Amino acid sequence: MSHPNSLVAGSDKMNGEFELKNGAVISTRAFKRDDFESLVVFFEGLHGESMRFSIPHYYDRARLETLTSDLERNIILLALHDDRIVGVAAIFGSSLLWLRGIGDFMTYVDQDYQNQGLGTHLTRLILEEARSKGYHRVSLEVVAENVAGIKAYEKGGFVVEGRMKDWHFGEDESYHDVLIMGIIL
Ligand SMILES: CC(C)(COP(=O)(O)OP(=O)(O)OC[C@H]1O[C@@H](n2cnc3c(N)ncnc32)[C@H](O)[C@@H]1OP(=O)(O)O)[C@@H](O)C(=O)NCCC(=O)NCCS
Q1: Which of 2, 32, 122, 185 might form a disulfide with 131, Cβ 3.0–4.6 angstroms?
Q2: What angle do CA 8, 159, 153 make, to 5 degrees?
Q3: Cα 119 to averaged position of ligand 1 atoms, centre (Å)
Q4: Residues 3-23 as b or e (16 or more Cβ within 10 Å = b)
Q5: What is the whole-number distance in angstroms between the Cα of residue 117 and the centre of ligand 1?
Q6: Is 139 in the pocket of ligand 1 (CB under 6 A)?
Q7: What share of the chain has pLDDT > 90, as a percent?
Q8: 137 C-alpha to center of ligand 1: Å?
Q9: Hey, is 172 helix, strand or coil?
Q10: Ligand 1 pocket, 108 CB below 6 A?
Q11: Cα(124) to centroid of ligand 1, in Å?
Q12: Where are the alpha helices (DSSP H) in the chain?
């Protein structure tokens, strides 16, 4: 069986265009090293409202350096409009034997581009890429009140597998339930 430990990143299958509900045309492609500073700027630009349901609370330069350090195993998909990053989806694998072929998913869309179908599109596109790279399963955790996220992930193919009570301490300083979602590819 093939698995992500034996495959390389950089597939051009994620290259493409996508029309938002408002008619804007977004291009998609894999993250490259040169995109790092733009990725930092993208996360700096996410408003508090966009980070309200975020697990974790922030993506600073140090965290992004770690997340972008293994582009062989991990998949990072960018959405761009006029050469500016407006959305990111990623799947992070693990070198641990018992997590072989199992990835963790995350996605963020710029607030001016939300609810236009982009999160759903990025979810579908990156899951296709994960499938072709040999991933077996992808999981995510989402705050139970994050209706837009849950809807986008379900439309992308994830199913709710469980609920963890009060698993997330939010920026509002209260606890929130978190749903576990997953997909077998
Ligand atoms: C979660 C997120 C990635 C989803 O991306 P998106 O581009 O907004 O999602 P989509 O437009 O593809 O899908 C959202 C769906 O939820 C629906 N929706 C949004 N808010 C809703 C609400 N309050 N009630 C019901 N449906 C709602 C939208 O109408 C849309 O459904 P539709 O396409 O059937 O009309 C994006 O909203 C985001 O980045 N949010 C902030 C960061 C975040 O929470 N990330 C996840 C961290 S774990």
Answers
A1: 185
A2: 65
A3: 7
A4: ebeeeebeeeebeeebebeee
A5: 8
A6: no
A7: 83
A8: 23
A9: coil
A10: yes
A11: 14
A12: 36-44, 48-51, 61-67, 118-133, 147-156
Distance CA 116, CA 120 (A): 9
Side-chain-facing half-sphere of 96: CA atoms under 13 Å: 6
Task: For 16-62, write each residue's pLDDT tens digit.
Answer: 999 999 999 999 999 999 999 999 999 999 988 888 888 888 899 99
Asked whether 148 lines ligand 1 (CB < 6 A), one says: yes
- CATH code: domain 4-136 is 3.40.630.30
pLDDT of residue 159: 98
Is the shortest distance between the CB of 142 and ligand 1 below 6 Å? Answer: yes
Whether omega before 4 lies within 30 degrees of 0, making that bond cis, reads no
Looking at the DSSP bridge assignments, the partners of residue 179 are 142, 163
pLDDT, tens digit, 9 for 90 and up, residues 128-153: 999 999 999 999 999 999 999 999 99
Rounded Cα distance, 184 and 158, in Å: 9
Its sign, for the CA torsion 148, 150, 153, 154, is: negative
**Ligand 1: does its nearest atom lie under 6 Å from the Cβ of 120?**
yes
* Ligand 1: centre distance to CA 71 (Å): 27
Q: What tokens were used for 117?
A: 């179908």
- Output the pTM of the full model: 0.93
Asked whether the beta carbons of 71 and 39 are under 8 A apart, the reply is: no
Predicted pLDDT of residue 63: 93
Measured from the CB, is residue 111 less than 6 Å from ligand 1?
Answer: no
